[in-house]
Design a protein that fits this description.
The complex is a heterodimer of chains A (about 200) and B (about 350). Chain A is α/β, with parallel strands linked by helices and about 200 residues long. Chain A has helices at about 35-40, 65-70, 80-95, 105-120, and strands at about 25-30, 50-55, 75, 100-105, 125-130, 135-140, 145-150, 155, 165-170, 175-180. Chain B is built from 14 helices and ten strands. Classes of the chains: A alpha/beta (about 200), B alpha+beta (about 350). Bound molecules: protoporphyrin IX containing FE.
Chain lengths: ~200, ~350
């Protein structure tokens, strides 16, 4: 394809910024997302109540002491992202209109947070996202419908059917995953060089 | 066109063929020697007698065989039909729309009688008679969208309009040009069109969306889209790519006339009354190069279009491997004469 070809389903992630038009703020981060939270708390803080959900799981550095010092708000810490997401679902059940949501971490984590919010009618566009740590992808095998997580290379082995999948840039928000398509379907056995391109 | 339904297959032994009448009415999509994407949307008004646009939905000689092929695909992969929970109103709109238009336009084949909410539907070609209560899904053997989606040729997507865009929140998709409903369901306009090359800089998609957002119930629209397929295979899904992808290696200058098919989609869009959803119908017509060449004007035209197609479109449509073979096969019909504009066969 010509230079400039870009699949528009691939999300663009930006840096977290407070949005003052709110009744409350929820910040959800995991692993290296801790750094994004620290950066957020260096900005002028909004007046409304802030709740921070953080799980250190998967972090390269220990951000917890810095977070505990910097976050002048309700900071809730969880050992695993599963526990964090469970607490997030409980929180959403009691949340009111005007809640602003900020999330940082791996792509999978951010879309898990967004999915949970969608169950309460919160639109994807109202969840601000900052990708941190790794570009690793979740990949949906279009043939056997399994998801393979933590994919860091252009071609991945499907965890369901074992096929070698070419990882496309086509992204489904509902699945939080990129499409994987059998790479050697036209010429069995011809698998291109596998390269680590999503470190 | 007479409705003698053919017995034929779209897989394995591929016995699908077009009759001379079906070739003559083929929706040939190239009015000019060059092709590029454009906002090629026009009113879906009634075309001339016998044309594929004569009626709201076109039923042709392949109706029974195509419905059978669809049933096979759905049996092997029920995920080819999907509908998000909030689409139930749109599903009933779809059932009413398809039943009413088929019964109105093809009274010998289909009939619908209504007694309040108690309806009876008769589909003679498929041997179906069904009494049910409109609005009560429990009185049908399956959801209303899948029920009628199985009884009309082609694919259907139901679009929900919100957040200033359209969402593909339901679909029954068994004859697609290499896109996955299971992956795409729930996506918005820009997301599902994400892989299409060149369109961002042409501004095509933004203008088309703007147009569709204000689509009115009384004014359905249509457009043609096209690609190529090796063998007359309806199910060229990414799901089954391992089954058909290898066929692209088989084409050469000798067999291109038989193996290579032009695949044209007649896409029509209708606004629904209750749900405000849009029904997007994608009807696939296949024609082999040999069949096309029974009208040399078409062979000339397609020779030029395919030879000069933008490389990004060649790649996107999956034609790269066999483009040269087909161009070579078609070249014998092209004396280079000016054939003017228009899609007519002669
Ligand atoms: C609203 C209903 C529509 C739906 C659900 C729809 C869906 C799709 C899908 C799923 C694809 C394949 C993308 C892929 O590669 O994964 C596609 C391709 C495309 N669509 Fe649409 N579409 C719609 C309407 C339109 C309209 C109105 C236009 C008018 C410009 C348009 C223009 C195109 C073009 C140019 C392509 C590339 C086709 C090719 O080269 O084969 N679409 N569409």
């Amino acid at each position: 394809m010509e230079r400039g070809y870009w699949i528009r389903s691939k999300p663009v992630y930006t840096a977290l910024l407070w949005n003052d038009k709110a009744t409350a703020h929820a910040v959800l981060a995991a692993g290296d997302g801790g750094l994004a939270v620290l950066k957020l708390f260096q900005q002028a803080l909004p007046e409304q109540p802030i709740t921070v959900f953080y799980s250190p799981a998967g972090a390269d550095k220990d951000y917890l002491p810095a977070l505990q010092a910097a976050v002048d708000a309700d900071l809730r810490v969880f050992a695993t992202t599963a526990e964090l997401l469970a607490a997030w679902a409980d929180y959403l059940a009691t949340a009111r209109m005007g809640l602003r949501i900020y999330t940082a971490g791996t792509e999978k984590f951010m879309w898990d947070v967004t999915d949970a919010a969608a169950d309460f009618g919160i639109l994807n566009q109202d969840v601000m996202k900052e990708l941190t740590g790794s570009l690793a992808r979740s990949v949906y095998c279009v043939h056997c419908k399994s998801l393979t997580h933590e994919v860091t290379s252009n071609i991945a082995t499907c965890s369901g059917c074992g096929r070698q999948l070419f990882v496309r840039d086509h992204f489904s928000r509902r699945m939080g995953a990129y499409m994987g398509l059998m790479v050697d379907a036209e010429n069995p056995g011809e698998v291109p060089q596998i390269e680590e391109i999503y470190p | 066109m007479s409705l003698a339904f053919k017995q034929e297959t779209f897989r394995d032994d591929y016995t699908f063929r077009n009759s001379p009448e079906a070739i003559r009415r083929f929706p040939f999509p190239f009015p000019e020697d060059q092709y590029m994407y454009s906002v090629n949307i026009e009113p879906h008004t009634a075309g001339p007698k016998g044309a594929v646009t004569e009626f709201t939905l076109d039923v042709d000689e392949h109706y029974v065989a195509e419905c059978r092929d669809k049933a096979i695909t759905l049996e092997q992969d029920p995920g080819r039909c999907a509908s998000l929970p909030h689409m139930m109103d749109a599903e009933w709109d779809f059932l009413e729309f398809t039943m009413e238009s088929l019964a109105r336009d093809y009274p010998e084949q289909f009939s619908l009688s209504k007694n309040g909410k108690a309806w009876t539907w008769i589909n003679r070609p498929l041997g179906i008679e069904q009494s049910f209560v409109f609005g009560d899904a429990a009185t049908l053997p399956m959801g209303p969208f899948e029920y009628m989606g199985r009884q009309v040729q082609g694919d259907f997507v139901l679009l929900d309009q919100r957040e200033d865009t359209l969402f593909a929140d339901a679909g029954i998709v068994t004859s697609q040009a290499d896109w996955s409903l299971a992956f795409n369901v729930g996506m918005s306009w820009n997301e599902w069109h994400g892989p299409v090359p060149q369109v961002t800089k042409l501004g095509v998609m933004d203008r088309a969306l703007k147009f569709l957002m204000s689509l009115q119930q009384a004014n359905p629209v249509r457009r043609l889209n096209w690609t190529m397929t090796i063998n007359p295979r309806l199910d060229t899904s990414p799901e089954n790519y391992p089954l058909w992808g290898g066929d692209r290696n088989k084409v050469n200058e000798q067999n291109a006339g038989e193996l290579a098919h032009l695949r044209v989609e007649l896409q029509t869009l209708f606004r629904m009354p209750r749900s405000n959803a849009i029904v997007f119908s994608i009807r696939c017509y296949l024609i082999s190069m040999q069949e096309m060449a029974t009208y040399p004007r078409w062979a000339k035209r397609f020779h030029r279009v395919l030879r000069d197609l933008h490389p990004d479109l060649v790649e996107y449509k999956g034609i790269t491997k066999y483009q040269q073979a087909v161009v070579a096969w078609l070249s014998r019909f092209d004396d280079g004469a000016d054939i003017g504009t228009g899609t007519q066969p002669e």
